Amino acid sequence: NAGVTQTPKFRILKIGQSMTLQCAQDMNHNYMYWYRQDPGMGLKLIYYSVGAGITDKGEVPNGYNVSRSTTEDFPLRLELAAPSQTSVYFCASNGKAGIFSYNEQFFGPGTRLTVL
Amino acid sequence: AQSVAQPEDQVNVAEGNPLTVKCTYSVSGNPYLFWYVQYPNRGLQFLLKYITGDNLVKGSYGFEAEFNKSQTSFHLKKPSALVSDSALYFCAVRPDTGRRALTFGSGTRLQVQP
Fold first, then answer.
1. Closest Cβ–Cβ partner in B4, B42, B101 for A58
2. Which pLDDT tens digits describe chain B residue by residue (114 residues)?
3. A115 and A14 in contact (C-beta within 8 Å)?
4. Is B106 close to A101, i.e. CB distance below 8 A?
5. Does the beta-carbon distance from A90 to B44 stay under 8 Å?
6. What SS3 state is found at A59?
7. Inter-chain residue contact B100 with A31, CB threshold 8 Å
């Protein structure tokens, strides 16, 4: 299994440009998440999904959009990039363990985004 | 709303000495607690978790953590530190019901000196 994969690894955007960060997992996990990590800070939840076709906002959703058309993919869209979106973005997933869903989250390697 | 506090930005310890990285939490209901480690330019790697049962949890690479409900703490420990343990450590919590997304602490940088 490749686990959780993210593309691209690095990207520089100009203010106002748009882009999509790709995330895919091959573990058949129901739950997927997008976090951002700012320097010296912990991870903040942007959006999450509990299954194909179902998404919901996290703590810091403004300026982002997501979709979940398949179990495997969970892309994050930035429509009008702003310098405040300069960050490292991590995608994560986890699956249900029987009647409990407390499995640890598996993280992708991250996308480092700079908006100038 | 849940929260996690990691009171130390950095912990310095000599190789071979025991290490402790502190974490306290706040959550409604019963907590599910996690420790993750992040090496430079890498994603987060799972170390260990507390769900229920024994308060002392053993995890990867010789790490362990002790859950203390009365003090709402989940400190990470290792009996003998290695230089290769130097990394950024994150504590995270989620409640046992409701949304499954984690709330992370701000991280503690562990520096192990040879």
1. B101
2. 789 999 999 999 999 999 999 999 998 888 899 999 999 878 899 999 998 888 999 998 999 999 999 999 999 999 999 999 999 999 999 887 777 778 999 999 999 999
3. yes
4. no
5. yes
6. coil
7. yes
